[in-house]
Amino acid sequence: MVRTAKSLFVAIALGSLFAGTAVAEEKLAIYPADVNLTSANDFQSFVLQRTLPDGVTLDVTSNAKLSIADPKIAKLEGNIVRPLADGTTELVATEGGATLKIPVYVKGAQAAQPISFKLDVVPALTKAGCNSGSCHGASRGKDGFRLSLFGFDPDGDYDRITRELPGRRLNLAVCEDSLLLQKAAGQVDHTGGDLMDPDGKLYQSVLKWVEMGAPKDSDKVAKPVSIEIMPSRVVLGGPNATQQLVVRAHYSDGTDRDITDLAILMSNNDNSVSVDETGKATSKQRGEAFVLARFDAFAVTNQVLVVPTQPFQPKKESGGNYIDDLITTKLNKLRIEPSEICTDEEFLRRVSIDIVGQMPTPEEYAKFLADKRPDKRKHFVDELLSRKEFAEIWVMNFAEVLQIRSSNQVSPKATLLFFNWLGERIAAGDPLDETFYDLLTSTGGTFRSPGANFYQNERDKLKIAENVAQVFLGMRIQCAQCHNHPFDRWTMDDYYSFASFFSQIGRKPGEDRQENIIFNSGGGEVKHPVGGRVMKPKFLGGETANTAGRDRREVVAEWITSKENPYFATNLANRIWAHYFGRGIVEPVDDVRISNPPSNPELLDALAGKLIEYDYDLKKFVRDICTSNAYQRSSKPNDSNRLDESNFARGNVRRVKAEILLDCISQVTDTEDDFSRLPKGARAITIPDGRTSTYFLTTFGRAKRETVCACESLTDPTLSQALHMLNGDTTNSKIQQGKLVEKMLKEGKKPEEIIESLYVRCLSRKPTEEERKRLGTALAEAKDDAQKRVVLEDIFWALLNSKEFVFNH
Amino acid sequence: MERKIRGTWMDDPAHFRRRSRRDFMYVGLLGGLGLTLPEFLRMEAMAAGTDLAAKGSAPAKSVIHIYLPGGAAQQETFDPKPHAPVEYRGDLKSIETAIPGVRFNQYLPHTAKIANKITVCRGMSHSEAAHERGTSNMFTGYRPSPALEYPCMGSVVSHELGAQKGLPPYVAIPNMPQSAPKNGYLSSAYGPFSVGSDPASNSFKVRDLNLPGGIDDSRFTRRRNLLDAVDAHFTGSKPADNVGAMSSFYEHAYNLVGSVQAREAFNINAEPDAVRDRYGRNQAGQRMLLARRLIEAGTRFVSLTYGGWDMHGRIRDGIARTVPPLDQAFATLILDLEERGLLDSTLVMISSEFGRTPKINKDAGRDHWPKVFSVVLAGGGIRKGCIFGESDAIAAEPDHDSLSVEDLAMTVYNRMGIDASKELMAPGDRPIEIVKDGKVVDELIV
């Protein structure tokens, strides 16, 4: 039985109808690529999908002429194949002039497969929702009856159904009177209501099992090993188009089963695609959705796009790099037109704030605009990348997720040393993988080996494992602490096996009372909470590790930072990307999971590949990002990309982060800040301790660094922010302290020139004609020089309060 | 965002809500392509408008929430155990109150006299013994979950009832307690507005509320016009949801700064000295007085904190220091509201994150104890002169009529005319009930 090809398709060459689109030929495909029936009650549904030349797919199953080549072997009921006799035959489908054939293998057609508790009953209870978290799957169960959440502990479920309160739940004499069935069917009072139709498959499975005497599965019962959802690619044209999906599970004994009606199916974006319980996907408004199928401990998704049916002609664009090729491919699929390339002024401001956290100075502004080189943007990016602020911003970003913050466990001195250590590594351009490897394996005093503070800030081994997974792999595994992750692949075994890497961290006080020493204690294990098994260290999604005689942290750090690790480079690439685009390709950046897939997986893979190719050189990598066309898009939307948030078709308007915003205000007003325990004039991005803050920074959402979550740094507006900008000392006092307007007046500049200069300082552009007129009117009302100064200062105040100033766009 | 304390959220009903696509979305996502922020806001707005009709007849128009951070001992406040052995009852005395047979701690003489105007719930009970989790629990009506941040009551009220008369609907005096939840999954528009400094201080001023020195109204108007001129180009050409959200906060700020009446509500110096003295010239007194001014002017929900109640050691001294100002201020607040005809429309609540251990510990203090403690309710459609629920002989567990956080929240919302079984929309198209599985406690309401 060959299962390599997921589908069989024929291509019908029709020539290129729509030049430039990705798919230029029409094809017909049948899913799955083969039918394997292994018992009398086995069956397999299938679908025929036609892909039009413009990429739109149609479900043509009901239009096709269908037959079984040898009707003695199998029969057809609609789009379902059922067995008749052992042997091999073919399913033949003819549609639109094309004919497709797929093999049908039938074995064991004479005997029905007996109902199995694990293979039939538990999936039926799961599908009906009995073991969901709000019902009997809750940790304490519901109304006196408990099941394991989504059936992660079928043996326990068997005991509770058959052995707990003997005689209550099952009635082996009058099977239909089993309380389990009566409750499920709503025949007696049931808080959860009527969940199984007595004529339906779910009820019948459970009933048959009770009729068999409610047997316990033998140890030989096969286990699911994988599931697949088909067709893998669905592009629906316009609203109300449908596509039937097929879900198939593969088992450890080599058999497979059609589980379309047993898997839990859901869409992550009901506004574009909804999916019903029979597996039919229906399109709504344009956009994309991922349909998730969950069965047993497995979850898989397929992407469903909804595109407008009007013809789409993508524009050609010059320049750009590999990033743009991949983004354009995706946008073309979605029929989205990207926004224009932004102006020089917009680019200058955007890239300065992003790379160095500063506004372009008036000198930089004049020089950049006067620069006639066609590749001046690339040159400017290089200039910015060579400044120390580039490294400082990244130190700040990483300090947030590494929780560089003083606390009862970590002294301010250790915090400062930790921050400086990170700062030196990043400023020196050390490869990020090496820096993080060193951090994860840090051993020794928290003063002399400051990376060790990572293990001092958080000392609970489970929490450390969760933090490491979230920071370095971008995934939140905490769900699996208590139950198999319902929307990802992680099981409790995975969780505790991974935590085991951090179970041998020793700690003792150092000579200096404020210093702590982190070392490999060589002992200590993690036990599974169900059954108390000692869990051997095992890589997430990988193999059991050989840690004999070694510091377990070393072993896991090698795995995390190895080039083969599928998560490390993508996570870093995604986090770096998100800083420059205001949004990750996976968003949130620290919530990678099957049910939250990247918006452009090819792009993410390519970026991760580049990061590895560049030997984790941050600078080189950021250069690619900031010189791409995608980064240079105008933030002005067009009709086709207005609704799109996740495909980088236009510039993203982002509130400037608290620290950078304060630095920019100080910069343009020519003033200094005075933070506690830092020299006067230090910039906010260089504050080492998450605990050091000011009213401005706290109000504008600076991360406290109390958790590793990327969600700590906030840019949501509040009333206090608005009041502070209007009436507070950050704007009002700084304008006074900096005396910029006064100085310019003294230099003999005309008010119009001063307005222009303030505009350039704050917004990196000159005022428009309309603005000159409106501001000029206000200025004209001033009677003398003193009043002129006041009006000019008010204009300065207005510029600092403007959305154009506080947002990067 | 997960909190540091771990181990109990597996029991959180919200963590295991019914299986559906909204779980699939997880927190904080706005649904990829399909759901834009304006749409989300519209959905929110629709959700908000569903039961406005019911609100006209609601008894409580506003809430003053007096929060005692740290965990106030039930034994040394509203639930003394004079007959328990000394190691349980402590060495403070109890006094009679206006309700025959009901006793309060000796430091609550003023409140004892008005006991017939308030309701004490002596069976408040939950199971979160850490400060931040207990606080979260009491402020939101939900056990904290690592998967979703719930909005606190004030934010829900703000969301449901909105602002009036230019005042922020939800004000915190002086700030929200540490680690207290704020707007949660609701937009930051519904977060508390913190006055930022202590009204008991001579230099009390609401941060950034008043125009800075040298800026008069006409100059502020000019500034506004200039800002409009500068903003027009950008907001016109780059419509973005987050820019619009910030603009709406500026509008709100203009209303607040521009309304003399609204600004005056924060001006505690406008109160006659006699009134200020009557409340007590201390943190408890002036905070409650400011709260009264604010609800009088139109604020819907005031959350104020008073004292440090985490008395692990020498509780006797802590109580002697902390309770008298609370006693004077609270009794005055109730009487003052009554005299002004505001008591029936103002729900006053005293709560804390938990109570304290039945037995005095080795440091002559008491430790955290969420199993049973007391909550005081008054006014706003709450019964008068009622003791609801009892703790057992040593104040260790509820004896009867225990009160859950869900039921308490449900009852408060009910008095405000908010049906708390209603679902609000969390990001990612997740409808979440305001309170899950709570019921209105009939014995508490009139």
TrEMBL record, chain A:
The keyword Zinc does not apply. Residues 323-505 form the DUF1549 domain. Residues 552-776 form the DUF1553 domain. Residues 1-24 form the signal peptide. Keywords: Signal. Pfam families: PSCyt2, PSD1. InterPro entries: DUF1549, DUF1553. This is Bacterial Ig-like domain (Group 2). The lineage of its organism: Bacteria, Pseudomonadati, Planctomycetota, Planctomycetia, Kolteriales.
UniProtKB/TrEMBL annotation, chain B:
It comes from Kolteria novifilia. SUPFAM superfamilies: Alkaline phosphatase-like. Pfam families: DUF1501. This is Sulfatase. InterPro entries: Alkaline_phosphatase_core_sf (IPR017850), DUF1501 (IPR010869).
